[in-house]
Write a structure and sequence with these properties.
- This protein is mainly beta and 205 residues long.
- Helices cover 5% and strands 49% of the residues.
- The protein folds into three domains: 7-78, SH3 type barrels (Roll); 83-143, Beta Barrel (OB fold (Dihydrolipoamide Acetyltransferase, E2P)); 147-204, Nucleic acid-binding proteins (OB fold (Dihydrolipoamide Acetyltransferase, E2P), Beta Barrel).
- The chain has one helix and 16 strands.
- The strands form four sheets. It has a five-stranded antiparallel sheet, with no helix packed on it.
Length: 205
Amino acid sequence: MSLVISSNIIQSVLYIVNMATTADIRNGLVLNFNNDLFQITDFQHVKPGKGAAFVRTKLKSLTTGRVIDNTFNSGVTIYPVRVERRKFQYLYKDEAGYNFMDQESFDQINLDEKIVENADLMKEGQEVEMLINAETEIPLSCELPPFVELEVTYAEPGIKGDTANSPKKRVEVESGAKIMVPLFIESGQKIRVDTRTRDYVERVK
């Protein structure tokens, strides 16, 4: 006799297996919440003088990138999603998206641009870290390291003598991104860029 199990039952079983409470909340935890996957980016346990305790959180959607504020009553059930962080190497971009290779299995995957944060700061061969849903093997996010080194391929000429208020100019780097840098940066030089803010950090000698 064959056994047919509906997807709703399977989902319910997964919820039971992955149930936790607000005591388990931590930065980086991924939750199944409001029919979406959210990563906790900040939280605070609050115990007011009157009334019940609660946890104030900031949640980032792993499908849209939207950040929301949400308050959980202390002790309520939450539904974590088991995730893994894996190292990948960026290979190339084509019409389908961005292609990467798993550095352990050498399997290749293709990601849509919306999953890759600051994709224009990424050059071929760049190592990235992906957050993978361990239950479905679906990539949830793709992050560059905090800093990358890129060669300047085009720099507008700076105006000599213009040093007031730390003026900056726009340059283009080898990955195609445009970055604001100090006036002394020239074509052919390498610069270090903060991928979290897209800010120029320093010139690389």
